[in-house]
Amino acid sequence: MMETKEEKEKIDFKILTVDDEKLYHKVYRMPLEKAGYIVDSADSGLEALTKLESDTFDLVIADQSMPEMDGFELLGFVRKRFPEVGFIFITGRGSIESAVKAIKMGADDYLNKPVDRDILLFAVKSTLEKMTMARELCHLKGHLLEHFAMDNLVGHSRAMQKLFQTIRKVAESEATILLQGESGTGKELLAKSIHFNSPRRNNPLVTIDCGSMPLELLQSELFGHIKGSFTGAVKTRRGLFEEARGGTIFLDEIGEIPEPLQLGLLRVLQERVIRPIGSDKTIPIDVRVISASNRNLKEAVEKGHFRRDLFYRLAVITLDIPPLRERREDIPYLIKFFLSRYNKRNSKNVLTVSQSATNMLYSYRWEGNVRELENVIERAVVLAETDNITPDLLPEEIYYQPPHFIIEDELSTLKQISNKASATTEKNAILIALKKCEGNKKKAADMLGISRASLYNKIKSYGID
């Protein structure tokens, strides 16, 4: 007979029962083994420690009263040396005081003898589920800390390296931060990196898009409400400022927040308290605020669309993220990063991008910035039938794009337009050659058919990093 998924998972759990009365080992073992658990026994606390040192257990079920080492002493040792192991306390002389003491010392549950079979199995199942969730949460936190480590941020251009240096400094502070940049430049990614590299990393990071909600709903989401405070408020609900206590709240598209709510947000930042809708009580908050906008908030202030005092509260530190078209030297590194990500996600092995496809990606304007580039690479990886991305795998707007140069309003003659186009083409050719030669200027000069001195002059002239 095939094992069910639940039975197979239970077999993985190993339980150690500890009791100086041998009769109870049989009382515990029979229902636990019948339920699919692996069970071992120890007649004393000292023997239990020896077994814990030499083997791996998920749960200890221990009696309170034992010679040499009682249950409380064993619990203290287990919590200190094996904190990942669950612990269920069992006693024949139960009292409220001993129960409180056991729970305070870290016991997961407290049962009285004689133990009912169903109660024992329920306690074991609940404790193991809690321990499993704790391990998964620990693993997830470790993954998040690794994923959002500063060293994993992709950007080799001078502008991005300067930005990353600033983020490393401000992450350790409590200052409010305003991230400004076009849509798709990675504002939310940087907000997460700041949080997971800050002293608040082990507390919540709560995100809300302020531009996607009407005033009443946004106010309720941020500050919470009490039951009956408005139509539809069928129960009391905590706001996101309260949910993020001890952590960080990320207010995306803060520039779209309705003007009536701007004053309420200002009071929160000034007084560090919130007042849920319909309540006459204030709730103190301990939250760091990171906000983001895809438009220049200072200009919005000058036009009267955003409160000046709120802007200065939000923008203690302002970080401007340049669009991808202004840091094209980052494109090859981003391509490599996204190739790796979507190869893993789609079980593919696309290793390279052809030179012609690279030229097209390099010269495209990228109005959608990094997010658009990511979508293009994901699409190409999914469609690729070989280990190489060719131009036919790129979207039509990239494949059929016009020559990449910008005609300024003041350029009125054909000669000026031609000079602009030639300069752009030449700069792109130099960048591609340097990339292909991994920064070796002598090899790049040979590839371009010019002298090394001429290449150095052009690099300086075009401001190439």
Commentary on this structure:
- This protein is of the alpha/beta class and 465 residues long.
- It folds into four domains: 5-142, Response regulator (Rossmann fold); 155-322, Rossmann fold (3-Layer(aba) Sandwich), CATH 3.40.50; 325-399, Orthogonal Bundle (Helicase, Ruva Protein, domain 3), CATH 1.10.8; 414-462, Arc Repressor Mutant, subunit A.
- It is built from 20 helices and 16 strands.
- The protein has helices at 5-11, 22-34, 45-54, 71-81, 96-105, 117-147, 158-171, 187-196, 215-223, 240-243, 259-271, 297-302, 308-314, 331-346, 355-363, 369-383, 396-399, 414-436, 441-448, 452-462, and strands at 14-18, 38-42, 59-63, 86-91, 109-112, 177-180, 205-209, 224-225, 237-238, 248-252, 273-274, 283-284, 288-293, 317-320, 352-353, 388-389.
- Strands 2-1-3-4-5 form a five-stranded parallel beta sheet, with helices on both faces. A five-stranded parallel beta sheet has the order 7-10-13-6-14.
- Strand 3, helix 4 and strand 4 (86-91) form a beta-alpha-beta unit.
- Helix 11 (259-271) packs across helix 13 (308-314), helix 14 packs across helix 16 and helix 18 (414-436) crosses helix 19 (441-448).
- The longest helix has 31 residues, at 117-147.
- The protein is extended, with a radius of gyration of 31 Å.
- The protein starts with a helix and ends with a helix.
- Residues 1-11 and 405-412 have low confidence and may be disordered.
Summarize the structure.
By secondary structure, the protein is of the alpha/beta class. Helices cover 50% and strands 13% of the residues.
